[in-house]
Amino acid sequence: MSVADAVREYVHDGSCVYVGNFGAQLYGVAHEIIRQRRRYLHMVAGSGGIMLDQLLGAGVVSTATFAHCWNAIGPAPAWNFRRLAESGANPVRLREVSLGILGAALQAGAWRVPFAPVDIPAETGYRAEDWTDGMLATVSSPFGEATVVEAITPDIAFVHVDRVDTRGNGVIDGPHGEAVIAAHAARRTVLVSEEITDPATSIGEASIPGVLVSAIVVAPGSVRPDGTSRGYPREVEAFAGYSAAAASQDGFASWLRRTLAELP
Fold this sequence. Notes:
Number of domains: 1
CATH topology: Glutaconate Coenzyme A-transferase
Largest sheet: 7 strands, parallel
CATH architecture: 3-Layer(aba) Sandwich
Oligomer: single chain
Strand order of the largest sheet: 4-3-2-1-8-11-13
Keywords: Transferase
Mean pLDDT: 94
Shape: globular
GO molecular function: CoA-transferase activity
Distance between the termini: 14 Å
InterPro entries: CoA_trans_fam_I, NagB/RpiA_transferase-like
Organism: Mycolicibacterium thermoresistibile (strain ATCC 19527 / DSM 44167 / CIP 105390 / JCM 6362 / NCTC 10409 / 316)
Strand content: 15-25%
Helix content: 25-40%
Number of helices: 9
Protein name: Coenzyme a transferase
Order of helices and strands: HEHEHEHEHEHEEEEEHEEEHH
């Protein structure tokens, strides 16, 4: 299965889509979602970065749940995100959370319960200014009151792994972040791997067990221009070039046309 096949089969208009990872972000998946003109998606990402910025600018997103959205090489904003946030028009529901809140929401989704408790100081913007746009609530129980976050259960999770065996057991060499929890929370999980290996090589080291996996995509370089912890470095020049191009809407539109034209 190719990235294009996986997006075609598992991403539909209106879907809730997690695209990983925490680092090693799947730009190949994001660009394919844009190319296939999906719409009204709820995108979930821990480190949103310019990947989420590109999805926002392309008009495929109706809701975004994210821990941050910036250009990692800075100092430069994620321009499409900034334009959306400052416009006041609110065409996209932006739900900003901490990584801890996101992990708890996905854990609740994995457990198939409606919410999970979180410890959030009242003076933070998550509560005082409702950055989460309604994801938090206070509940009472015989054991006391607690702040809770609503569960996130993605329809599909795309998770990058450094290698996967023929049984679907995937290994992440770098930081896991929320990616493993997202695979447990999602109704379907697609692993996008740098390589495929014999099952005997993954015994005892799988980050994500094959029982959770609906499909495997072997696509070396699928996180470029980002990098992997051991495979290849981030392409800093590409991040800088994107920042310069996306500073205006016309510049972003030109950049997007060129990028989509270069997809395999």
